[in-house]
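Dissemination and training. As part of the outreach component of the grant, students in the summer workshop were shown how a complex can be specified as a set of sequence lines and then modelled as a single object. The example used during the hands-on session is reproduced here so that future cohorts can follow it. Participants entered these lines:
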Amino acid sequence: MNNAPLLKVENVTKHFEMKSSVIDRYLLKKQNIVQAVTNVSLEIREGETLGLIGESGCGKSTLGRVILRLHEPTHGKVFLGNEEITALRHEDLKKVKRKMQIIFQDPYASLNPRLSVAEIVRLPLKIHEPLSRKEMDDRVADMIERVGLDTQYLQRYPHQFSGGQRQRIGIARALVLRPEFVVCDEPVSALDVSIQAQIIQLMGQLKEEFSLTLLFISHDISVVAYLSDRIAVMYLGELVEIGKVDELLNHPLHPYTKVLLDAVPQVDRIGVHKRIVLTGDIPSPLSPPGGCKFHTRCPDAMAVCRTEAPALEEHAAGHSVSCHLYR
Ligand code: SF4
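and obtained this result:
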């Protein structure tokens, strides 16, 4: 793994404005703003896999889409190498976009049902690479074999495949352009557990073969831990902890990370295991709590947590946390 960061995210915020009623807008002067991502900064080194975890709706997929410019950030910058992606337009943006791809969560919804497998995997080449038809067909066939499918299926349509096979097609489509950086957005969460293991193994293999740099998004810490070099934990749009996999799994600092780890089933737990149970509802990103956003559910909350937001600070080498317990 190279030590130079390939991807840099600087203070990225993404807010969505929701439709509000006439009374809200004109009488109460109130806007409905979903604070999906707030002031996130991180780096991913060349060849590294950064796992990004958190509950559904915590903003992790939105962050992945902002990085790829599928959403425009409200504030902040994203760099791929030395290029500021967030400042690029038109042809310049198209050139950079071919180096960055996404594998989607839902292999059922993400493939066009009217296109054959060959057409689906060929499409990115048609858009981004001026190759002859023969060269394109060779690249498609090669990619299909690398993801473990038989080329005799190239003329079949998505509905003729199982969930795991469809995800393999999605992976082939994402990698056919030989990208440098890939966002894997919950790529196995819609699959059966036995198929999940095969797809994760395949992704590990392809990561080595293509020297990929990955942002691997999941709500399941055990899935993320298998592939990642480091893990970042997100809560209500903010990063609350980031560190190397072993360090974070063995010495979690943030109370929220401890809850996520505690929720992982372990076959060697015998007898009654006293789980950490979160109290309170998940706050709405329309009106997140002040101070530490986790204070309404945190078992360790103190008075200061209600009024003062903690900053993400390094606690040990390469291990940062945002929590007043470690000030
Ligand atoms: Fe809990 Fe306070 Fe730490 Fe937030 S800052 S995680 S409320 S102890």
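The CA atoms of residues 224 and 243 lie 13 Å apart. Students were then asked to discuss how this feature might be tested experimentally.
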